[in-house]
């Protein structure tokens, strides 16, 4: 980031003088180029990214990226897991516009499902993974069904409470190990002649494949009727309902899908971690993933992935600064949010919505009421 | 207009009262809109016109009384279900999805009758692509129908005011309504725009839809309506052809107040 700022400073700083804004406009330019890029250019980028991801664990990259801890391990957790969770939370927060502060509850439920069924019944990885995803989807519906009638702040509070309920329940249920947690969680079976044991590399490729799949799913949802309905709900829930969108059902769907991806991430993580306990799922993790989504640019897949990557990687990279790294990290977040509140790589639409929220009515003349001012759903007509 | 209204009733409000605490916004209103007509609802500000729309579209549940649509009771029905049974509306204050393109706005309306769910979209089922393709074609047709075909890819909020009103109508038509409710569609339009709006409303009716309209522009109302109902303080004070209503002393009083007595 810093490097970007310095180079941009030279050529165009005269205009605005704010290096952050300039770096931001560069990022916007990248996004706009992408929106217009023809198919073959996109495929080149896709292939480049996949090749890049495959060679990423190489030691010479690790030497620079993670001088203090094992690079491949860092790539699996936190980086890979954070990216996967950010994609899932992006569906809830970025696409459907629902604020979920307890997302890690689903991560925990996925982990516990895999751990419990794997250790108690000895079922294999794929069976327990499927159960984990199923259980989290159901828990998403259980949380969503009574609460999605709430809007905004209230929903956030309820999700926060849900996370606490899950954590405390895990802490007090002996059946799943109570405060001691669950140990000896089975690893995934051998695949393609590779053993899943304590070497992090196979897990990295497993999470990479999972992320690619989830990106495809998420993107397909976004550009379908489902994504359109979410966008409509985000913009004007009442108008959407009156245009025939079953808003409650679609919000519940967003919750369930987001939960499934969180559960998937939790299950994959637990299979590598070998040991889980209630303390593995602190509230701060929910907050961190939310920061990743918002910082990256909620609603835009490359953005939230970039955000998750930075949030996961920066503290590892600067482990040498010991305790101070958290201080610098926090300061960097505050600075970034102050200077580019819409996130690093926001979607064009989300960015416009945020701008409206802060009162920038832009091109909408005085005669056109915004979505918040004097809705028709009012007692008397003018 | 030429023949008397013998078509079957499409929308019926029976003895309908809508009270908010002590405020009675609609008081024992009986109203019947027949299939295929253009029906106007007029009245001074605060007379209960938009409340009527809100009751019909399921935003409010009436305090007492019934709303029937094509013989079926729809009061208390969920709002999106009311839309699916064939009632669509526009809003007095434009409420488009501002940051979506014009085309996407219309497609949200069309989605009311689409069936693709999350699984169909995620696994790229053929019916999903078929619906998307047909939806896109139909949306372009509708944009063309309301006269803004060149604006499909523009963001809704960047459209000129009159086009936003037209886009709202296209979005409502997307849900394929039998009854279209227009809440002050001509507000803020210049005479030329009003003229073409008038033609548009006629074409919508000629397409086999029924139009219920709230409008303050009396010229427009008297010109295109088959029948007119007048609300005042939540009461239905007159109903009939434009000519009948215009000459009704109660209506003159409601609009001109004491001046009517003085003159």
From TrEMBL, chain A:
Transmembrane regions: 43-62, 74-95, 101-118, 125-145, 201-218, 252-271, 283-314, 321-339
Its membrane topology: Multi-pass membrane protein
Location within or outside the cell: Cell membrane
Residues covered by region (Disordered): 356-382
Domain of life: Bacteria
The keyword Plastid appears for this protein: no
Protein name: Branched-chain amino acid ABC transporter permease
Keyword terms: Cell membrane, Membrane, Transmembrane, Transmembrane helix
Primary location recorded for the protein, binned into one broad class: membrane
PANTHER family, per the entry: HIGH-AFFINITY BRANCHED-CHAIN AMINO ACID TRANSPORT PROTEIN BRAE (PTHR30482:SF10), HIGH-AFFINITY BRANCHED-CHAIN AMINO ACID TRANSPORT SYSTEM PERMEASE (PTHR30482)
């Amino acid at each position: 980031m810093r490097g970007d700022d310095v180079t941009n400073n030279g050529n165009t700083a005269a205009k605005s003088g704010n290096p952050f804004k300039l770096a931001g406009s560069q990022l916007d330019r990248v996004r706009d180029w992408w929106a217009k890029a023809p198919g073959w250019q996109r495929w080149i980028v896709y292939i480049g990214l996949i090749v890049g991801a495959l060679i990423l664990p190489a030691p010479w990259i690790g030497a620079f990226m993670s001088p203090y801890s094992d690079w491949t391990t860092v790539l699996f957790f936190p980086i890979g897991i954070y990216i996967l969770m950010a994609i899932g939370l992006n569906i809830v927060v970025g696409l459907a516009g629902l604020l979920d502060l307890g997302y890690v509850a689903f991560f925990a439920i996925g982990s516990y499902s895999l751990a419990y069924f794997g250790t108690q019944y000895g079922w294999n990885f794929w069976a327990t993974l499927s159960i984990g995803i199923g259980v989290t989807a159901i828990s998403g519906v259980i949380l969503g069904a009574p609460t999605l009638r709430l809007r905004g702040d209230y929903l956030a509070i309820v999700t926060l409470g849900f996370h606490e309920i899950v954590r405390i329940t895990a802490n007090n249920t002996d059946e799943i190990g109570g405060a001691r947690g669950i140990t000896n969680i089975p690893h995934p079976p051998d695949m393609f002649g590779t053993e899943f044991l304590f070497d992090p590399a196979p897990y990295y490729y497993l999470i990479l494949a999972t992320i690619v799949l989830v990106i495809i799913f998420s993107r397909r949802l976004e550009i379908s009727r489902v994504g359109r309905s979410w966008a409509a709900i985000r913009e004007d829930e009442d108008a959407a309902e009156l245009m025939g969108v079953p808003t409650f059902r679609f919000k519940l769907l967003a919750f369930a899908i987001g939960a499934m991806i969180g559960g998937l991430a939790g299950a994959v993580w637990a299979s590598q971690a070998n040991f889980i306990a209630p303390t593995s799922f602190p509230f701060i993790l929910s907050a961190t993933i939310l920061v990743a989504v918002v910082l990256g640019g909620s609603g835009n897949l490359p953005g939230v992935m970039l955000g998750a990557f930075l949030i996961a990687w920066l503290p590892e990279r600067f482990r040498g600064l010991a305790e101070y790294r958290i201080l610098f990290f926090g300061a960097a977040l505050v600075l970034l949010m102050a200077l580019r509140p819409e996130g690093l790589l926001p979607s064009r639409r989300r960015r416009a919505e945020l701008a409206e929220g802060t009162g920038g009515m832009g091109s909408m003349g005085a005669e056109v009421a915004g979505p918040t001012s004097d809705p028709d759903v009012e007692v008397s007509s003018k | 207009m030429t023949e008397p209204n013998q078509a079957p009733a499409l929308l019926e409000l029976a003895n309908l009262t809508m009270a908010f605490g002590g405020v009675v916004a609609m008081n024992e209103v009986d109203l019947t809109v027949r299939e295929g007509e253009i029906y106007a609802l007029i009245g001074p500000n605060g007379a209960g016109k938009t409340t009527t729309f809100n009751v019909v579209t399921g935003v409010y549940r009436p305090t007492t009384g019934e709303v029937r649509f094509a013989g079926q009771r729809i009061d208390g029905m969920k709002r999106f279900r009311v839309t699916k049974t064939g009632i669509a509306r526009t809003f007095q204050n434009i409420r488009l999805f501002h940051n979506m393109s014009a085309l996407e706005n219309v497609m949200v309306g069309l989605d009311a009758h689409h069936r693709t769910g999350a699984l169909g979209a995620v696994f790229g089922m053929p019916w999903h692509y078929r619906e998307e393709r047909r939806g896109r074609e139909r949306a372009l047709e509708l944009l063309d129908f309301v006269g803004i075909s060149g604006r499909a890819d523009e963001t809704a909020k960047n459209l000129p005011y009159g086009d936003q009103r037209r886009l709202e109508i296209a979005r409502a038509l997307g849900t394929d309504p039998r009854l279209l409710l227009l809440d002050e569609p001509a507000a803020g339009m210049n005479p030329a725009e009003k003229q073409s709006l008038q033609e548009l409303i006629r074409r919508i009716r000629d397409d086999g839809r029924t139009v219920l309209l709230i409008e303050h522009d009396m010229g427009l109302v008297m010109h295109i309506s088959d029948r007119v109902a007048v609300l005042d303080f939540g009461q239905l004070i007159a109903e009939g052809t434009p000519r009948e209503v215009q000459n009704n002393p109660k209506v003159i009083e409601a609009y001109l107040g004491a001046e009517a007595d003085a003159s």
